User: Fold this.
Amino acid sequence: ITGYPTLQNAVEAVNKGADAYVMKPFEMETVLRTIEEELGKQQKEQKFNQDKVASFIETRVRELEDEERLTQTTK
Assistant:
């Protein structure tokens, strides 16, 4: 949240890792909506990462099971 709404400040904030930029004066509704949007983005990203890890694990388990079957048949 800033009282100095300039393009330079916005760019600097984003470069430093800001997820959102709210200018003063602000309405509480705007701040709450911004927070909700950012939390939603984080939840989607977390779900995507969890799905990616689960997919990797499932693939690796199948590969290991296939290798085990091949080993069993060659004995």
About this structure: The mean pLDDT is 91. The longest helix spans residues 28-74.
